[in-house]
Design a protein that fits this description.
- Keywords: Membrane, Transmembrane, Transmembrane helix.
- With 170 residues, the protein is mainly α.
- It has one domain (2-169).
- Helix content is 75%, strand content 4%.
- It has helices spanning 2-20, 28-61, 63-70, 74-78, 80-92, 116-119, 122-149, 151-154, 158-169; strands at residues 97-99, 104-106.
- Helix 1 (2-20) packs antiparallel against helix 2 (28-61).
Length: 170
């Protein structure tokens, strides 16, 4: 749901803003609200991906912890984490602002005599870096667990296992 809402909002509004030449100076309220919601949806979608990889990993690695976190209605409680995360970015961080000259979203208005450092969004940068790194590491672990539990992995020769280890290290 987050992905679909984020894609719809970002693509439709980006096209509308670009066709009309809209930027922060011409429509500040709409730009501020749209940028806040778009950023919140993006970060919420990132956290949903993180929850998904944890769910997948625990499903094959440790069923007890998976059941403790995701059994029955507990999944809805776990999904409050991405919702809270999304709301934090929506209401408490600097919003994205569209610039029709650059045809992109930025954290800066491009107004003369404004300091770009004032608009920088450190939590967004941390989100993008941490989600990418941690999600990739968790998927590597997920692949290792799947390989260990698969019947194909146990029938490999020493040389084949060695090659696979090297590939996973890369």
């Amino acid at each position: 749901m987050y992905d679909m809402a984020a894609i719809s909002l970002n693509s439709l509004l980006t096209g509308y803003f670009w066709l009309n030449g809209t930027n922060y100076c011409t429509n500040p309220t709409l730009m501020f609200v749209a940028g806040s919601v778009a950023l919140g949806l993006w970060c919420g979608a990132c956290m949903n991906c993180f929850v998904l990889v944890i769910n997948r990993l625990l499903d094959v690695w440790n069923k007890n912890i998976m059941q403790a976190l995701f059994k029955d209605g507990r999944t809805y409680v776990v999904l409050l984490v991405p919702l809270t995360y999304s709301l934090y970015f929506c209401f408490f961080t600097t919003p994205l602002l569209f610039n029709s000259d650059q045809t992109a979203w930025f954290f800066f208005t491009f107004a003369p005599e404004h300091d770009p450092e004032m608009y920088y969004n450190y939590p967004h940068t941390a989100n993008n870096l941490l989600i990418v790194v941690v999600t990739c590491l968790l998927y590597v672990q997920y692949s290792r667990v799947l390989l260990r539990h698969s019947k194909v992995g146990s029938g490999l020769s020493w040389a084949q296992k060695s090659v696979r280890r090297r590939i996973f290290k890369i």
